[in-house]
Design goal:
By secondary structure, this protein is of the alpha/beta class. The chain contains 6 helices and 5 strands, in the order βαβαβααβαβα. Helix 5 links the parallel strand 4 and strand 5. Helix 1 runs parallel beside helix 6.
């Protein structure tokens, strides 16, 4: 069965190393007949969550704020798989990805028990070094808490400048993971 996949790309570089990984993943996933939508969060206007607990009122755009999350909500609702993609910033995901992910709580507010929709997920990250432990810890606990199921992680270290990832085995791993869906 073909899947609907949403990539939340938290890299500010559309042509950076994280985007190279998501590009290969997307190629693999599409070659297997899946539908992939990628959002480049760094070029979108997304405000931080207000913590107001007033979301969930409108199915099409559940948050009280009006910004570019309105583009993400419908795709996220329909998605079978959510890919969280980010460069490693101070041992964690980028602020762009964290801000967008926090705003997805408005979807959980649509449920009377504040349950998040069940999804499968993937973590894709690149880094100057290789200290992914804190991000993996967050991702693993996030999945457990909201009831998601991980399909895998692609973590590519020692890539700093755009293009440093060329020739790295993680590119093929990303493609293969996409193709396996």
């Amino acid at each position: 069965m073909n899947k609907k996949i949403v990539i939340l790309n938290g890299s500010p570089r559309k042509n950076g190393n994280t985007s190279a990984l998501t590009g290969e993943f997307k190629k693999g996933a599409e070659s297997a007949g899946n539908q992939v939508t990628e959002f480049f969060l760094g070029s979108m206007k997304i405000n931080g969550c207000l913590g107001c607990w007033h979301g969930g009122k409108k199915a099409d755009c559940p948050c009280v704020q009006s910004d570019d999350m309105a583009q993400i909500y419908p795709a996220y609702r329909e998605a079978d798989i959510v890919v969280l993609a980010s460069p490693l910033y101070y041992w964690f995901i980028s602020g762009q990805l964290k801000t967008a992910f926090d705003r997805l709580f408005a979807i959980a507010e649509c449920d009377p028990d504040y349950r998040n929709p069940k999804k499968q997920s993937i973590l894709i990250m690149s880094a100057e070094g290789a200290g992914f432990e804190e991000s993996e810890h967050w991702y693993d606990h996030l999945e457990k808490h909201i009831g998601w199921k991980s399909l895998g992680k692609i973590l590519c270290g020692y890539v700093t400048q755009p293009g440093d990832i060329a020739g790295k085995p993680e590119l093929q791993q990303a493609y293969n993971l996409g193709k396996s869906i």
